[in-house]
Amino acid sequence: MFFLTLDLKNHDYIQENYDIYDLIINRKALKKMNITTLGEFILEKQADFPGSSGELSRILSAIRLAAKIVNQQINKAGLAKHILGAAGSENIQGEQQQKLDVFADEQFIKAMEARGVVCGIASEENDDFVAFESKNPLAKYVVMIDPLDGSSNIDVNVSVGTIFSVYRRKSPIGTEVELEDFLQPGTEQVAAGYVVYGSSTMLVYTTGNGVNGFTYDPGIGVFFLSHPNMQIPKDGRIYSMNEGNIHSSPEGVKKYISYCQENDAATQRPYSGRYIGSLVSDFHRNMIKGGIYIYPATSSAPNGKLRLLYECNPFAFLAEQAGGVATDGNKRIMEIQPTELHQRVPFIVGSKNMVEKALSFGNLR
Ligand code: P6P
Q1: 296 SS3 class
Q2: CA-CA distance, 41 to 65, in Å (whole number)?
Q3: Ligand 1 contact via 96 beta carbon (within 6 Å)
Q4: Across the chain, what does the average pLDDT equal?
Q5: Domain ranges within the chain, ordered by starting residue
């Protein structure tokens, strides 16, 4: 019988974690209620990969655990003055790091390192990648992560999220992890997902066999399968863009946004503009309701604002697995060959027919 032993003060991960709920409550009763926990789902899906070593399952379990810890702090953020506000430092993006950014980054890094199956991690919050091979010499995976996307929204109580992407390392196992292990095109992803810390906390992920969503029950600390086999509606009536950038956006973007705003009952236009300013929340809404999210090249962000490795590629993988489309305006996001860790690209993602309509205007870059 495994139990989680966690030093909550330092968040030292001491042992493999299983959902305590799984161990205490009779699994048969859960099955009768047709309830699947994330832990059970990960193990069931592992069986889909014959000969799988369970290492990817351990990575997903590590993400699950760190998400629970971050969720707990976010939910207290309004009260926990000690963790609110800026950490007094800046990340490579030159963005003021919120204390929760730094806290979340530490939790995910510790969780990955503790599982022994990840040899390195690249994070929005760290200028360079973090190598674990001294502790995990035989690990064959690398992880890219935005530990707390949209964190500037925390102080105004708007949803934020974690975004992650998992690859097999390219360099030989047992050697030092290298930059090339992280600079892989999105087509090489073995898993990707996000956690949205919103009115409820959800973890949504794919391992290349569809997309599944799990809702967290904080009362018992368990994620339950709530959105099996998620599909983005092929059409939608929501466009999501910071229209403050419209004048410095490419002509094709201007034309498409105007198209969304025109009156045409036959195509149910005008669409609705919805922009939360938190990519995870805007993407999650579009996953469920249908819609398009656009962050183009602008005068202040000539290559776009969003980062290829730990924002655009994971969402592109999820979108395609759910029947959607993700492009930089010229090419499929997942086919872009990265050249640097924090590389930015223009990003257009969402319902297939909406993205294809935007592409039909051309000049999106
Ligand atoms: P802007 C948050 O900083 C983020 O990376 C995404 O979560 C969000 O969609 C975007 O930037 C918001 O950027 O320039 O509209 O404030």
Answers
A1: coil
A2: 15
A3: no
A4: 89
A5: 2-227, 238-359
Residue 244 alpha carbon, nearest atom of ligand 1 = 15
CA 44 – CA 306 distance, rounded (Å):
34
Residue whose CA is at the smallest distance from ligand 1 atom 2: 150
209 three-state secondary structure: coil
234 backbone dihedrals φ, ψ, rounded to 5°:
-65, -30
At residue 13 the predicted structure's pLDDT band, cuts being 50, 70 and 90, is very low
Pairing status of strand 222-227 against strand 272-273: unpaired
The finding on whether 296 has its CB within 6 A of some atom of ligand 1 is no
Radius of gyration in angstroms for the set of CA atoms belonging to the chain, rounded to a whole number: 20
Residue with tokens 């599944």: 212
- Give the CATH architecture of domain 2-227: 2-Layer Sandwich (3.30)
Report yes or no on whether pTM surpasses 0.70. yes
The DSSP string of 159-200 is -EEEEEEEEE-SSPTTSPP-GGGT---GGG-SEEEEEEESSS
Distance from C-alpha of 246 to C-alpha of 312, rounded to nearest angstrom: 21
Give CA–CA dist 55/32, Å, rounded.
29
Token reading at 101: 């950014």
Q: Tell me which fold the domain 238-359 belongs to.
A: D-Maltodextrin-Binding Protein; domain 2 (3.40.190)
Q: Which H or E run includes 144?
A: strand 141-149
pLDDT in tens, 70-124: 999 888 876 665 555 666 777 777 776 668 899 999 999 999 999 888 999 999 9
**pLDDT tens for residues 40-83?**
999 888 877 666 778 899 999 999 999 999 999 888 876 665 55
DSSP labels, 255-278: HHHHHHHS-BGGGTBS-EE---S-
pLDDT digit string, tens, across residues 269-306:
999 999 999 999 999 999 999 999 999 999 999 999 99
Ligand 1 pocket check for 93: Cβ under 6 Å: no
Best residue among 149, 153, 311, 347 to mutate for probing ligand 1's pocket (most ligand atoms within 8 Å of CB) is 149
Bond preceding residue 270 cis, omega within 30 of 0: yes
